[in-house]
Write a structure and sequence with these properties.
single chain; 126 residues; alpha+beta; Thrombin, subunit H; 8 strands; 16% helix; 40% strand; disordered N terminus
């Protein structure tokens, strides 16, 4: 029984440590977006949807594979606001499409038009 408690404690500590490393809190929200990418000299627009957002970017689900380092323009379908971003690491395939991590060229706390938790906010232990 003791090992199970220790294992659960280790998992919660590693989750907390991961959250501590984040630059800003993530908010789980689905926002329809458009990604404008230049491929072979042509501008291509791809529809996607966010899975989670923060002031530094988003994790999006996209039907098209985008390579790490790809630079693009991201347009928020709800507000029509746009900003530049890049793919930060290799996407993962999921049942909905490709999970693609995007980072804004510079932090944009107002891009998503939502209020983020304060930087010192911690989830409750309940």
């Amino acid at each position: 029984m003791k090992q199970t408690s220790e294992a659960a404690s280790d998992r919660s500590l590693s989750t907390l440590a991961g959250e501590e490393r984040r630059r800003s809190h993530r908010v789980i929200i689905r926002v329809p977006i458009q990604l404008e990418i230049t491929l072979a000299g042509n501008d291509v627009i791809v529809s996607a949807v966010t899975v989670a957002v923060n002031i530094h970017g988003a994790m999006v689900v996209c039907p098209r594979l985008l390579e790490s380092g790809t630079e693009l323009v991201m347009r928020n379908d709800r507000t029509r606001e746009q900003t530049t971003a890049r793919v930060t690491r290799a996407p993962r395939e999921s049942a909905e499409g490709y999970l693609i991590p995007l980072e804004f060229t510079s932090p944009s706390p107002k891009f998503w038009q939502i209020t983020f938790p304060p930087s010192n906010w911690k989830p409750s232990d309940s």
